[in-house]
Amino acid sequence: MSRNRSGFTLVELMLSMSFISVMLMAIALCVIQISTIYSRGETVRQLNQAMRVVATDLENTTAISHPFDVSAAAINAGRLCMGSFTYVWSTPTRTNTVSGGSAIRFGRVSDPARSLCNAGSLSTTTISGDVIELMEAGDRTLMVHSFSITPVIAESAAEQRMYSITMLVGTNNTAAIETTADDVAVCRSPSDASADFTYCAINEFTITVRAGIR
Question: Which helix (DSSP H) or strand (DSSP E) does residue 87 occupy?
Fold first, then answer.
């Protein structure tokens, strides 16, 4: 007695395998895209978190400082002397380091005499003393690409002064960064072969601080 047996034809098997392959490829692409978005978000998160710490410290330190003069030479050397404390940071063209040799991203050091802003000290890149690093190292290495501070309002009667501080802060992936005609650091466009959308981020932050013990 004969029995009829049904099964998959070769064409049906090939179609099934093709469908499964397409599904697996789509899943892999989705996972890669999700991973890229997450990594990009983590880069921006670390950047914003670091700047919150820096901004809060600048506001608090300025609030307990007397009004101070801004030295362009000191700013170019990566230093801001407020009186009791001095802020020190590295720039794309100059690396300030602690005595042990590690680079200072953005730190604060006790400097009541403002010695770090003296003309004779500006050429020195090794900072002595206990430097408190405010831009802690995470998975992303951050740096100050530019820093400017401008007096805004002076209140002579109250011996107070307001300053506007603008910082351009971002990752330190030099290969993925280019400089515009205005000498501003930006991440390369995605169409550039050297671009790094996932790990390159540069943002400008502006805060207003008040000096003068109230």
Answer: strand 85-89
